[in-house]
Specification:
This is DoxX family protein. It comes from Streptomyces tanashiensis. Keywords: Membrane, Signal, Transmembrane, Transmembrane helix. This protein has one domain. Helices cover about 80% and strands about 0% of the residues. Helix 1 packs across helix 6, helix 4 runs antiparallel to helix 6 and helix 5 runs antiparallel to helix 6. The protein starts with a helix and ends with a helix. The chain is built from 6 helices and no strands. The chain is globular, with a radius of gyration of 15 Å. With about 120 residues, the protein is mainly alpha-helical.
């Protein structure tokens, strides 16, 4: 299996897992939805979970992989404000919790780069 395909399938697994988590345990995700967004946090949680599942499905199929991978990179950039909100909200929590929240911020960069690689256009 070529490395681009393997990368896309691993990324699809990550997105499918995250999407399922949004659907099965939405409360934890509701808490990081920026309040400036219209609608309810639950609506955004379920919508982002559905998007993650759709992106995962698109990454699995070679015919839609490139478009889905590019959309995944954009999605990872779009959810960055939620990570900023989480880091802000968790700033007074325990050191391990703060570390987790702060570590999510720079993690978006490798996720975006991974999506670009999965699209076959990372060069």
């Amino acid at each position: 299996m070529p490395s681009t395909e393997r990368s896309a399938l691993l990324l699809a697994g990550l997105l499918a897992s995250a999407g399922a988590a949004h659907m099965l345990a939405p409360k934890q995700f509701d808490a990081v939805v920026p309040r400036v967004l219209p609608g309810t946090p639950r609506g955004w949680t379920l919508a982002s979970g559905a998007v993650e599942l759709a992106l995962a499905a698109g990454l699995v199929h070679p015919a839609t992989r490139r478009t889905s991978a590019r959309a995944t990179a954009l999605f990872f950039a779009a959810v960055f404000p939620a990570n900023v909100k989480m880091a802000h909200d968790w700033r007074h929590r325990s050191t391990p919790a703060k570390t987790l929240a702060y570590a999510r911020l720079p993690l978006q960069v490798p996720l975006i780069l991974w999506a670009r690689k999965a699209s076959g256009t990372a060069g």
